Task: inverse folding
């Protein structure tokens, strides 16, 4: 390549960069002119952008771009001079011109016929007579439809690719390209520097202790001198004593000075390290507007293709967002915007009948709140029909009609995030395939965030995306498990509780506790992390509640350490995926810790539950035996009877566990201690008679009292149960509340000893 070719290539690259900048100005200005065609500032900005592109195209000898820009400039000048009032068709043509300018800047693009048609459309517009005064009239349906295109009109071009970051720079600022890996390494080094700077504090404290020791030595020397004041010392001894006194005083002065210098150095080092870290973190941040620059145009074009008037307003475009998060937000936000235009915003006539403006409004905002990034997307459409959603849930056999009727609004809206779920009856090119909201939720979860839906029928829908400010740092709850420190990302933590041991219940062979009117399964973090023996029994257990609305688990830990903002340190790729672990980090004192992968932990819990390997949280040790209430195992295949007996015994103060059949009960008896078994007779897999026989045949269990409760009240049935070894036989058809409780207390006494 000769020097002239190199020069031309460089100029072309500069033209492409300028085109991206100016096209963005044109898109924003034309969208604003669509709502206010006479806005002088917007007309001036668009005209200047077209004029600049015309001059730049001449320099690089791109005649097609010169033709497009010149035609656009003439049209905009006519609008400035009042010879033309921009209509929807004119805005469409100008936007198409902006798209063609961006396409023609790409080497190899052949757009001859499209350019000719566009120039013809734009050249004819200024020759129209001046727009007549606007006369108020009743709107007609045709007013809200897109203009009818002639067969020879070019097809609408796709919207230009969204620019990554071409914001105008301030005067005198320079841009230097740095790879993302380099920024990540810089951020890691700055975080290590911040951690290392904290070592100055303990060093300063040690010097302070040394000063106190030195001061004590001086006082001891003074005491020695005072005690020897009356004694006669030779010259040599007196000189040695004076030298010691002088040396001690000099050391004291030196230590005082050095300690002061260390304190000042520690403060400067800590301040500098914090500034370095903040600056490195800021290098990874970008304005929110960089990632959503082309969305207003997309919403406008999509709405017109559907015969709707839709406008997108963006607030908080200067909000700083981690560049990795911003890049990954593109797909979820596009899903939500397309759904809002297609599903949410009504047709113009329908909006007028509902007393709304014919133009639909979608708002997209970003802000920082409580150390998190909150992105809200709302529309003023028709909202979500809860009745229709309830019918769809039943038709898909996700639940029965009785349960669906009792579901709250929040519970119903959670169904929208299921894979393949859609309330749209037909499939279109825009939506209706049920692959939107589940993708949104999956992507947001990958960013350690969460999605919530709020709606008001007839007024609109609002989506709230809550995510961390940066993927490089994470706010975490620190806990201790078996002497090691672990971190739960706060985005996954629902609640942090202290659960009393007496509030832990045994249901279906698993431990639960009641919180917010629902049963939450209890799992030991020691078992999930394979961290050794079960935790010792205690009166209260620190429990971290994690999971989704429909699937919550309480993970019991040893103790809470506190809340910290941690710098994420990726694990060595040679380790591969470490189960239940997401990354590593360092505490302020340099102590290493692991950041837990909560999604992976939930999968581990499911495997333990399905495999029947879930252990007791308290380990069932001697201490637990000493503090617990008397435990009763209720074995019955009837849910109604099982729950009735459980509640009766709980109200009397007993600790109650339940089993769904004899086999389930037998497995629980072999793993856990009980004071009494209450069993039915007729059950699947293993009936009550066989269960009683096995209990009485087992040397470890044969002393365990067993009560048989059955509908069979015949003498031969009673004798059959007692012959098997049962200690008490009670008929369900005749017993009342007190009869059952009295029989239990006769066998094992009161609930508490």
Result:
């Amino acid at each position: 390549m000769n020097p002239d070719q190199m020069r031309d290539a460089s100029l072309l690259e500069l033209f492409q960069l300028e085109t991206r900048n100016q096209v963005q100005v044109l898109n924003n200005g034309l969208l604003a002119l669509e709502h206010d065609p006479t806005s002088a500032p917007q007309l001036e900005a668009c005209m200047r952008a077209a004029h600049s592109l015309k001059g730049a195209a001449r320099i690089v000898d791109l005649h097609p771009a010169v033709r497009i820009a010149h035609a656009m400039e003439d049209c905009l000048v006519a609008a400035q001079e009042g010879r033309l009032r921009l209509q929807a068709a004119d805005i469409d043509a100008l936007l198409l011109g902006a798209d063609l300018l961006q396409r023609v800047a790409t080497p190899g693009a052949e757009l001859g016929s499209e350019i000719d048609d566009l120039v013809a459309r734009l050249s004819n517009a200024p020759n129209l007579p001046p727009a007549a005064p606007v006369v108020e009239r009743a709107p007609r349906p045709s007013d809200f439809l897109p203009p009818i295109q002639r067969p020879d009109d070019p097809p609408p071009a796709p919207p230009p690719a969204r620019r990554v970051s071409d914001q105008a720079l301030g005067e005198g600022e320079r841009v230097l390209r740095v790879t993302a890996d380099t920024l990540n390494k810089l951020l890691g080094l700055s975080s290590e520097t911040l951690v290392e700077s904290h070592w100055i504090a303990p060093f300063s404290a040690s010097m302070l202790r040394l000063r106190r020791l030195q001061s004590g030595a001086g006082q001891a020397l003074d005491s020695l001198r005072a005690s020897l004041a009356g004694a006669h010392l030779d010259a040599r001894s007196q000189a040695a004593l004076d030298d010691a006194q002088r040396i001690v005083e000099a050391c004291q002065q030196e230590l005082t000075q050095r300690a002061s210098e260390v304190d000042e150095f520690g403060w400067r080092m800590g301040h500098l390290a914090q500034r370095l870290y903040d600056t490195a973190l800021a290098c990874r941040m970008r304005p929110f507007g960089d990632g959503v620059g082309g969305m207003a145009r997309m919403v406008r074009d999509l709405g017109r293709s559907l015969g709707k008037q839709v406008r997108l307003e963006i607030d908080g475009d200067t909000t700083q967002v981690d560049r990795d998060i911003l890049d990954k937000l593109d797909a979820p936000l596009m899903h939500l915007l397309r759904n809002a235009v297609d599903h949410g915003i009504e047709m113009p006539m329908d909006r007028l009948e509902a007393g709304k403006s014919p133009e639909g409004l979608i708002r997209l905002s970003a802000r920082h709140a409580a150390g998190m990034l909150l992105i809200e997307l709302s529309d003023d459409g028709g909202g979500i029909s809860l009745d229709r959603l309830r019918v769809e849930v039943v038709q898909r056999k996700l639940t029965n009609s009785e349960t669906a009727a009792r579901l709250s609004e929040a519970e119903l809206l959670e169904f929208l995030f299921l894979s393949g779920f859609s309330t749209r009856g037909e499939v279109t090119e825009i939506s209706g395939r049920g692959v939107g909201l589940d993708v949104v939720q999956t992507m947001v979860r990958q960013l350690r965030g969460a999605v919530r839906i709020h709606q008001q029928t007839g007024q609109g829908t609002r989506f709230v995306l809550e995510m961390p400010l940066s993927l490089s740092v994470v706010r975490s709850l620190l806990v201790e498990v078996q002497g090691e420190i672990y971190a739960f990302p706060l985005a996954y933590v629902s609640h942090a509780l202290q659960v009393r041991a007496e509030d832990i219940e045994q249901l279906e062979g698993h431990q639960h506790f009641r919180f917010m009117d629902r049963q939450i399964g209890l799992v030991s973090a020691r078992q999930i992390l394979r961290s050794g023996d079960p935790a010792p029994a205690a009166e209260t257990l620190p429990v971290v509640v994690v999971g989704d609305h429909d699937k919550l688990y309480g993970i019991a830990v040893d103790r809470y350490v506190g809340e910290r903002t941690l710098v994420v340190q990726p694990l060595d790729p040679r380790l591969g995926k470490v189960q239940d672990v997401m990354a590593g980090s360092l505490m302020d004192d340099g102590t290493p810790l692991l950041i837990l992968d909560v999604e992976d932990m939930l999968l581990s819990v499911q495997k333990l539950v399905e495999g029947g390997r879930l252990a007791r949280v308290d380990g069932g040790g001697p201490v637990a035996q000493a503090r617990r209430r008397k435990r009763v195992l209720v074995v019955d295949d009837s849910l109604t009877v099982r729950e009735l007996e459980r509640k009766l015994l709980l109200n009397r103060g007993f600790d109650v566990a339940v089993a769904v059949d004899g086999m389930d009960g037998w497995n629980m008896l072999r793993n856990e201690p009980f004071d009494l078994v209450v069993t039915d007779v007729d059950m699947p897999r293993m009936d009550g008679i066989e269960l009683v026989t096995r209990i009485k045949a087992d040397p470890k269990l044969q002393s365990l009292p067993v009560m048989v409760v059955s509908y069979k009240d015949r003498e031969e049935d009673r004798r059959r149960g007692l012959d098997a070894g049962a200690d008490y036989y009670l008929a369900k058809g005749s017993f009342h509340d007190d009869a059952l409780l009295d029989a239990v207390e006769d066998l094992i006494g009161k609930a508490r000893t």
